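Quick question: what would this complex look like in 3D?
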Amino acid sequence: MAVPSISGVGNWLSSATGKRMIALTLFYLTLGLLFSTVAGTYITRSEVHQSAYGEDWNDMSAFRADIKNQGITTTSIVSSPLLLEEIQSPRDTVFVVSGIERDTISLPRFSADSSVIQLVEGLGYSTSEIEAISSFVERGGTIVVLDDFGYAQGLADEFGLGYSGHQLYDTQTWDPDLDFNYVWLNITNGFNYSSSSGSRTNTNPCIADQDSDGTPDFLEGIVVPTTEELGLCSHRWDSINANYNMNPGYDLLLNQPSAFDKGQAGENADDNLYPIGFSTQDAYLDTNNDGKLTVGFSGTEAGSDEQGPFAMYVKYCRSRNCDNPDSGRAYFVTDGSLLVNSIYDTEGVESGVYGEFNKTPDINDNRRWALDLIAEALMSNDGNASISPDAQVIFDESRHQQPSFMGDTYNLLYYILIYFTNDWMAMLLMFLGLFVLFEFIIIKKLDPEPWRHVFSIIYYGYGDSRRYEYYGRANKIKQILLTRVRNVNSLTREEFDALPARDLQKMVNDPVLIKFIFEDRRYSMEEIIAVIKRIKTWGRR
Amino acid sequence: MWTRKASILGAGGVSLVLVGMMMSNFQMMVFGVAFVAFLAVNSWITGHGDIQVVRTLSADNLYKGDDLYVELEITNPSWRRTQQLEIYDNVPHEMKLRSGLNYMRVNLGPGETTRVRYVLRCPLRGHYSIGPISIRYRDSFNLFSQEMYVDHRSDLIVFPQVREIEEAMVRSRTPKMYTGATTLRTPGPGTEFFSLREYVPGDPFKIINWKAFARTGQLIVNEKCRDAVTDVFILVDSRDISRIGTVLKNPLEVGTVAAASLASYFIKRRDSVALAVYDERLSFLPPDTGDKQYFKILSSLAGVAPKGAMPLQAVTNALSSRFSRGSPVFIISALEGDGTTIPAIRDLAGRGHEVIILSPSSVDFERLVSRIPRTSYEVLKLERQNRLTALAGFGARVIDWMPDVELSQALLQVKMG
């Protein structure tokens, strides 16, 4: 193979092909650099938190495993909760949002208010996504939102709630075996929806006991139930002592919790919004964000933290007092760590399943609470403990960092795809784009011209029309006549110029032409033509 | 390159996928994916333009108005089919396609050869180049096309036409002082044998008489009689103003025909012919005779293009030292736009040259492309007559050449002073 010489390479570089190749290479390099820069921000592997698919102490694999062991399908949404609109049986679906770590991408959308087009989205989820989640609940779905300082505010707003966004310190219920970040949320009865409703344990099939005999309705007449008979309430069965736990209260252990704003988490029966879990009166919200508990007079003194009690667990039901088992539910807790492995599975933590974790949380009711709400959502409450074959629990992974290579890039692209096929504004834009694309193709995209030879030499010529007027003037004609007289008489220019007028008249010997030579006036076209005719015939005599 | 069909198919496929997703319509999405897949598969099985082309011309030099036979031999040396292959031989637009087509659409198999034949008519003199060969290949469904060139060119020269003017020259009132080559009884460059002499160093080998050498053992050379020839000078006006008229009929075009015909006539008579073409500068071919000189003159006339405004007197002054004493000088010019014409010709005549002016009537050529008002036309003609009369008065033989008059007819119309 011949080695190209330096001059050959130089010639190639200076040729049109070489220049084009260089330009193309530079273009694609720049494009690649830009793309890798953008994609790089999504490629970086990050530590995963609160993922149902992670096995660390701060993930939720134990919760997911429990659900799977109960025969419920678990899955996840990595693109956008807009997909909830596609779910055919929302009554058999629970959507779990644990820790909203990322804000949404603001894409334009139509809004129902006067602004017509909304360019900036709310916190956490886009408006379309929030509408999709809200619609999911309206259609009978159940959502569980666990967040503290994340981006759950947008979704909470939809249900009339407000996350305070500040850490809560509880001087009474903090766990001295752990540290002040661990706070107990003690709920005497998780089914006391309002002050007037009384205990509504019948709304949960696991503890529904119409005849008040201490045995849940779905286990009436069964002494030692099998796993199948227990359905989704097996977590309440103590197989060693052959005892079924009918306790409606929960002692929930929270890690660095926040709380709802006081003004937005009161009991509001009109909106079916029921605050169930509260902090103690000696709880404070770190409203000045100094990381310390700053006690002031009634919490109103400038610089002091706000004093409790604060709502920390709020339940929303589409039906009043959650009486209709098919109506949608929403559970809001102000702690994203409620179901992480280190708190949810204390035995696993002790045995070191989740890696090194230097604390040993006490036994708590987080697991019972979580599985109770799953049972409430997915198990029938008619005493049969039946579960729909379509029952499923969906974990929202769209707001978590993805550990896989380019996982976030994939999520972003998938999000955009979902956005363009679900949002009306986006659909309109897409239709417009497709229309423009087709127009562009039809107008601009031309097939190569058919080749044909065109013979074209007879279509052009050359003349000088500017001089024609000059040659129609009397002075020019007079000059030509005099030249003709001079040529015919073989005179030089000097001889002719020196010629007396009388001699010139004799030479011409034509009264009309003599008059034309000597008379300086304007001539009509007819006169000019007559003079030219005489000049033409004059030389021939 | 994507064709419009491919672009519409691609856009349609993507649109169907998107709209299908939007409407949750899987049939639509399947159709969209099928469209895109169809495009993708076809993009892998396109043809190629890796072909060998050889062009054969019936002649490299030809005269204006002649036909040129062109043959392209196209071979596919690859082991793949070319698919839809379009081949187009780029022909100068001054040439007319007389028969056949310079275009072919083929689908050549591996090693297959095909031929394209066509005939061109060359109505305009000049230096031309046929080629390169444009190639466009497409896939079977006409979704993608690629264009490329095979840089194969064939150069040719179209000489001005040469008219037969011998009879006209004999019958014309042009003086017959230049009667062609005459043999003188003195040795020198010529054609007829004169004598034998001994070889002297410097003599060319081709004049050695080898038979005499074999017989005598001494190097003997042939000496020829010196031919006395007349040097004929032809001056062609190629200034910008000489393009007045149509592309095919203008003073310069007819002037080149006249110059070629005169050169042909005199070279056939074994006279030496010199050619001077003046436009923005002066191009001069020194007097010489023979086929080589004839070819040089025709080549030079083929490449003449109107440009510049060099005055005639500058030409005659520049050539005054090169003019042979008493040699005839033919000036082919429309005599327009040059105030030095009369003094230049007066000087030439004064130095004893026989000056013959062949002047295409530019006013009448102009009428072929412009509507000249009748009065202006008559006045222009009168002015031209004055000019020709003045030149004839200085002893030049003047021929007023009208566009519709043949050269041989025009040569009979010498205007004497």
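Answer marked as accepted. The mean pLDDT of chain A is 83.
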